[in-house]
Structure formats: C-alpha cells, structure tokens
Amino acid sequence: MADVDTAGRKCLLRVDFNVPFEPGEQTISDDSRIRAALPTISYLIQQGASLIICTHLGRPKGRVVPGMGTEPVRLRLARLLDAEVAPAGGPVGPETAKVVSRLRAGQIAMLENLRFHPGEEANDPAFARELASLADIFVNDAFGAAHRAHASTAGIARRLPAVAGLLMTQELEMLGRILEEPDRPALAVIGGAKVTDKIGVVQNLLDKVDKVLIGGGMSAAFIAAQGMNPGEPRPSRSDVEAAKTLLDAYGSRISLPDDVIVAFAFSAEAEARVAAADQIPNGALILDIGPSAAARYADEIGRARTVLWNGPMGVAEWERFAAGTRTVANAIAAKPSLVSVIGGGSTAEAVAKFDLTEKMTHVSTGGGASLEFLEGKTLPGVAALDERSA
Ligand code: ADP
Ligand code: MG
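# adenosine-5'-diphosphate complex -> structure
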C-alpha cells in the first residue's frame, strides 16, 4: 500500500467485516475484524484518499436479504473511527456511483453487502468492472476472504492498480514466517474437530517446523491409526489411513496425547474422566487432551522459539473440557520471547476467552484463508495483487 500514491485518489478498500452477531440480533458480538482494519483506514485517510469500503456479510447468496445489510458494521466503524461513514447503498448502481462521486479527500463511504449481488461470488466480469469504475486504486485488506476468487477479491484486481493493505501485509508476513525460516525450535499445535479439514495443513507443516503436537478431535484418528480404541464417534477409515501415512512418514516428529479426557455424552455437563490413550473405554468420547499430555505440550512450548497454533485441544467452549486448551494458551502466554501465531476462528475465540489475546504475537483474522495458506495453497485474492515494482 505504501508503494502507491493515494493522495486525492478514490480507493476501493475491500475489508473482511464478516463479524459475528448475537443470535438473531443486529448486535455485533465481536468487532475484532473491524478493529483489525483500522490502521489501514487511518493511514489512507491521513494520506488524503477518499475511501469506498466494501465487505461481504453472511451468506445472502446473491439476493438482497433484509437483516444482512452492512448497516451495523458501518455504524460500528463510524463509532470506532469517530468519523462519518456514509451509506452508499448498492453495492453498485447509479445511486452508489452518485454518492461515491461526491466523496472528497478524507471522506469515507461504505457499500452495501457485496454478496447481495450475484456477480460477487460468481466473479462476474461485469460486476467487477462496475465495482472498479467507482475508484482509482484497489486496496485489499480482506485476508479472511483471500482464499475466494470473487469479484471484489480477484476480478477487480485486474481492472485497477491493486495493492495489499496493512492487515493483509501483516497476515502474510506472520503466517509466512512459519513457512519460511521460523526461529527454531518451531512447533505447530494442531487441534480442532476433524482431521479431514486439517490433514493437508499437518502434512505441509511437518515439512516446515520441527514438531507437530496433535490435540482435539483429531487425536482419535491418530489413536486409531496406532491400533488402539479411539472411542466414539469412530474416525472415518480415510482419516485413519491419512493419520497412519503421516505417522509412518514422520514418526516421532508427530506428538500425540498419551492421555485424554473422555465423557459418555457430548454435553457440557457430562462427567469428565481421564483415560490413558491406550485404554479408552468403549462408547467414550474424547473431548480434551489429558493432564499428562497437556503438561508435556506446555513443556515443548517452553523450549520452542516459534509456535503456530490452530485448533483447540478439546471442546474449549465447555469448562470441563477446556483444561488442555487453557494449558496450551497459558504456556504460550508465559513466554514473551516466543513468536506465537494463532490461526483459526475457534482458537482465537478460546484465547480471547482466557483473556490472553494481547500475549500472542499475532492472532490471524482469517480462518479458512489461514488454513489454505498454511496448507501451501495460493490464495487467489493475494495472487491477484500487483507485484511490487522494485
Ligand atoms: P479453528 O476454528 O480454530 O480452526 P476448528 O473449527 O477446527 O478450529 O475446531 C474447533 C471446534 O472443534 C470447537 O468448536 C471445538 O469444540 C471442537 N472440538 C475440539 N476438540 C474436540 C473433540 N475432541 N471432540 C469434538 N469437538 C472438538
Ligand atoms: Mg472453527
């Protein structure tokens, strides 16, 4: 972004303001994605640009859905900036063009939900052209949407000078640091619900970091892969095969929990018991890593210089099954010299719940995007940006 002159120019700024709301309400429950874009917005305003901010919100599937408009995020942004953010409607059309044409240097307008238009997700050239016609420069700060080749992330970048915003740059630098020359020892801690979602990530990370520590629901597939009883639900055959392939290839560079917390019902109130990984009772569900595994993982983190963490160690939303996740979070927080990168929405939520967000080096705003990046995939929204003309 610093490579282009934005003074007096109209900048179309794509952000990811796809924030969570209180169930059934218009009240934003977590505005960290909006806050994360504030440095870029302030910078562009200070440079004397006029800003046309756009985002998607929810899944209206190409139709105007009442209650899914950008009004609540526009108002929150205005409050955080203590500045006026004009509603520009649209996201495209003559009325929007009129509002945008009246913007002066330092003024801000926000478009309606990009996904109200069917052209957005279809990456329709006509829609991309119409969006591009609103501005002189395209700034992409929507890391969380960069794994999608949509009109506002990919199509538009071919029609305007296209640069990365500060958040996008920071995300790519921090996540990129894990994949390229991390300070060693470098660890990845991977948990979450299913192996299928993350097997590619585990595989790619094993080639970049020194060790991968496994927790969460993923543990079951690795336990089954060693011929032990994984309890319920049975991991799929393909997950067990994938876990087995990784264990054969990487051996002790994959750390597995030696004990787990099990319960006999998937419920916050279910009685929690410790079980050795090779003695999981029939019908039991693995809902967290056990105290011995958690202590061992904390120890590994204490010796590391870089940690990437994606996926809670258990059902961290429920207090009885949150101990493993909390132990990992505390171990990271206890070591200020550690470079710690948190990826994944649920992991970020857990860290926030423990009030440790400030202790992390970087908490990614992109769930799916960060996973695809760590898997080694090219993100279309990043690939579409201009190369630095050095
Ligand atoms: P992230 O969003 O950080 O990438 P995931 O979405 O992959 O993480 O996984 C988080 C979800 O996985 C949480 O809702 C958590 O409750 C659930 N989870 C973690 N461990 C288990 C487990 N052992 N059994 C069932 N669900 C689990
Ligand atoms: Mg999640």
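# post-check
The chain has a mean pLDDT of 96.
The first strand starts at residue 10 and ends at 14.
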